[in-house]
Amino acid sequence: MADKLTPERRSWNMSRIRGKNTKPEMLVRKLLHAKGYRYRLHGSAAGGKLPGNPDLVFAGRHKVIFVNGCFWHFHDCRAGQHAPQANAEFWETKRTRTRNRDAEQRLQLERDGWEVLTVWECELKDPSALEDRLEAFLQRTPPA
């Protein structure tokens, strides 16, 4: 059985987890680029930074895509519902706060006239379905 991590080691491990250019994000970017879509990265738009720093910004279409890790953003899939045993209260609070922040940022983007799509890490298991979902989102014309 593995030794328990010290708080210092756990902190070091957590500091190595990236928020940008993650594997799931890179897979979505590669898929869309191969389809001919062009985008800006990490919340950059002509008018400056967008709320929540979306991973992909399609300014001409007024659409943004977030690529979220299931655990970190408390998705309702199996990975997102995994509850850590160590420091359980901390993780519950942190992940709930992240989910609430995501909802607030999405609402702000929608108020500002942006269409928002969230791609979950678990969706990468079915690339064909993901590709269809991304195409449908990007091809859909917004209501007038």
UniProtKB/TrEMBL annotation:
Q: Which UniProt keywords apply?
A: DNA damage, DNA repair, Endonuclease, Hydrolase, Nuclease
InterPro entries per the UniProt record, alphabetical: DNA_mismatch_endonuc_vsr, Restrct_endonuc-II-like
Q: Its Enzyme Commission number?
A: 3.1.-.-
Presence of keyword Nuclease: yes
- NCBIfam families linked: vsr
Q: What does this protein do?
A: May nick specific sequences that contain T:G mispairs resulting from m5C-deamination.
Name the record gives this protein? Very short patch repair endonuclease
Q: Organism source for this protein?
A: Arthrobacter humicola
From which lineage does this chain's organism come?
Bacteria, Bacillati, Actinomycetota, Actinomycetes, Micrococcales
